[in-house]
Design a protein that fits this description.
heterodimer, A: alpha/beta, Rossmann fold, 6-stranded mixed β-sheet, 4-stranded antiparallel β-sheet, globular, B: mainly alpha, ABC transporter involved in vitamin B12 uptake, BtuC, 0% strand
Chain lengths: 253, 290
Amino acid sequence: MTTPVIAVRHATVGYDGRPVLRDISLTVSAGEVVALLGANGSGKSTLIRAVLGLVPLSAGSVTLFDRPLRRFRQWERIGYVPQRLGAGGGVPATVREVVASGRLARRGVLRPPGRADRAAVDAALRAVGLADRAADPVATLSGGQQQRTLIARALAGQPELLVLDEPTAGVDAASQEAFASALRDFVAGGGTVLLVAHELGPLRPVITRCVVVHQGGVCHDGAVPDPAGHHAEPDHDHVHPHGPDEPAGLWSN
Amino acid sequence: MELFQYPYMQRALIAALVIGLAAPALGIYLVQRRLALIGDGIGHVALTGVGAGLLLNRSPVLVAVIVATAGAIAIEVVRARGRTSGDLALALLFYGGIAGGVMLVGLSDATSATLNAYLFGSLITIFPGDLITIAVLGTAILVAMIALRPALFAISHDEEYARVSGLPVRTLNLLIAVTTAITVTIAMRAVGVLLISALMVVPVATAQQVTRGFRSTMTAAMALGLFAAGTGVWVAATADTAPGASVVLLAIASFLVVAVAAGVWRRLRRRATPAAAPTAEPHEVVLGSS
């Protein structure tokens, strides 16, 4: 029996008195790659935010690595990838500077970065295929590349658990592939993953378990569900025609 | 240049240079968190401290440090709660601060010239004791902002991520609030409470026209702050104007020059390399790829 990395027990979360999650329980063991699926507003993002302590529980409990969330301090064991990078006030930051933030959990506030920190940042940039963009301002990157930057930031901390909030939403195919390969490497190295997803796409082979959240509760927990209709088939591509002005080269690459 | 033979002018210049370096080093974090006007608000609150100090015959700078710090902490608490009424709470604090200041200065036997000196800065009011306070606190702020840059960058860039990294987010937020209050108050002798906020923000806005990273923006903004403060004091001394106004106008002039030059440079470069522009968005899917 492996120790649970995440254990959510009978958790209830509400915003302004309106419950979003009701009496929900979820356990993730070491080495698992768990996908949280569900419609918009089902509460799947709220669940991972509650796991990380970003939203308070009104009932129930969360333990991380066998420690109650309130007393959990080993944040270097967790890599968090939010949905998107906030624009902030517009002060430029390079890709490397953003990724280097991922070392803070391990290094602490006061210690300046050392050789190990720089090596970890380099490795994380290579893992997501952005080593050549390290010195570029992150705002000049495409949405998919920005998402890869956030994944590199989480990987730079060399975590044991990755928690990702819709890492592939609105991400181009090249970035989805780069992301899937980075995730495969992470899992091969013994990592545990909890991710929120809309559709699995190239991630499907990596996922070991699916949890479907519906109306604030778990309605499926187990194997990756069979595709409904034409969605989620391995060769199903999500094509959104944008009208007649598609640039040449789409079919000929 | 003969003007700088006088000790009071030397003190004014040194004070302005310290503030010119420290204000943008702090301001970059405020700009990144969209709090560019917070320094102005805290300046309003500090004015109540000045008034209280004048009325009680205590050092106005010291009383202002205390009152502004309390105000900054109150603002930070309101901000952290994220309430929708936060905006109104800030307005109450700001206008309460300036009204209280004007009222208290009026009750004391200070003249309107004294009030003006605090609002817009003055070259002749920096005494040796003030200079020591400015130098010590200014250096402390500078060291903290540079030494803690990775952590302060992280919380300014993505506060939730910083929290999941286990950073002491609340403490760092309070540190920024308190250093803002201290910067405003030590700057008020040289630049004035109503104009110091510009020295925190404008050099950052200028620098980010041409820089690519956070660190380079910070360095360039500090250099610009130093230039505006030094030149501004010299202009104020030669033209007999309020130093705050000269410093800020120089900072804004630098912004305009850099913004126009950067725009021209970008246009020229685009014209020089027409083949490279514009690249299409990558396809979401590539069908029939080999």
